[in-house]
Amino acid sequence: MGGWSRSKLRQWWWIAFVLGALMINYPFLQIFNRRTTLFGIPLLFLYFILGWAASVAVIGLYVWALYRAPPEDE
Asked: Structural domain boundaries of the chain?
């Protein structure tokens, strides 16, 4: 990722944003809204917690890649 330009990273950021927004809408929430539990944790709650952790990881990777990317004027 270190060789990517800032404009390429910006495109990936928008893709991640749109996917994240889709993941918290109707079809996905309905899939995980069951009475099923995994290790005693309701599936929907686990979906939200894991989704939150994944979004934090994506933000961290984006900031790391942005820090390593060359400035736009080069």
From this structure: 35-74
